[in-house]
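To the wet lab folks,

You asked to see what we're planning to order before we commit. Fair enough. Below is the target structure as tokens, and below that is the sequence we designed to fit it. If anything looks off to you, flag it before the synthesis order goes out.
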């Protein structure tokens, strides 16, 4: 029997905290059980397995991250919104490295399509990009560009991979400015023909 007071939310939050403290790869059911002072079997009343735990961590962290981003971009548009979005993204990634790592795992598309965190992420991200006049398929391409740039920079910064004495924040701000210019002059592609009746696909989540 699981220890009294142990809930799924407590288990997932503790796993996210452990990821921030020790590293995402160090989150195991055994390590988490030791944290609570219970046997591994006690955790199976709350999570199915390690994959289920990591999926729940991704959803938790994704929700926290988009809440921070949404607050930052509220009332802003264009370059100001992009800079606020980017700044909140970078801050979360650097302050919560384990949680951030959890957001990078691939989530089952059927789950992503119904997850409030993923749906809100799509709404906030796509809303910002539509201010640049982007629609599909350019919207998906732009999301991929932003994600690749933000993630690549944060991952390199977190490992101390930038060796130049150039201030990291200055380089980040310049990169965001360059993205703004790119979005303003996006080489638009003609939208694809609508799918045949019965062949519609769900709206792509922001992890495209």
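Sequence we intend to order:
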């Amino acid at each position: 029997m699981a220890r009294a007071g142990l809930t799924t939310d407590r288990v997932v939050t503790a796993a996210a905290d452990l990821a921030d403290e020790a590293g995402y790869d160090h989150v195991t059911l055994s390590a988490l059980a030791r944290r609570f002072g219970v046997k591994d079997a006690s955790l199976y009343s709350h999570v199915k397995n390690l994959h289920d735990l990591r999926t729940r961590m991704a959803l938790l962290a994704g929700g926290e991250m988009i809440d921070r981003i949404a607050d930052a971009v509220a009332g802003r548009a264009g370059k100001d919104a992009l800079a606020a979005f980017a700044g909140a993204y970078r801050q979360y990634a650097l302050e919560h490295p384990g949680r951030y790592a959890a957001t990078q795992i691939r989530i089952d598309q059927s789950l992503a399509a119904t997850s409030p965190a993923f749906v809100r992420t799509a709404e906030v991200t796509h809303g910002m990009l539509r201010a640049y006049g982007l629609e599909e398929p350019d919207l998906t391409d732009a999301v991929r560009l932003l994600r690749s740039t933000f993630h690549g920079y944060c991952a390199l910064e977190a490992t101390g991979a930038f060796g130049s004495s150039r201030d990291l924040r200055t380089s980040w701000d310049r990169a965001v400015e360059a993205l703004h210019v790119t979005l303003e002059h996006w080489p638009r592609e003609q939208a694809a023909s609508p799918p045949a009746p019965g062949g519609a696909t769900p709206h792509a989540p922001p992890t495209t």
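Structural context that might help your review: The CA atoms of residues 3 and 38 lie 7 Å apart. Residues 195-206 have pLDDT under 50 and may be disordered.

Thanks,
Computational group
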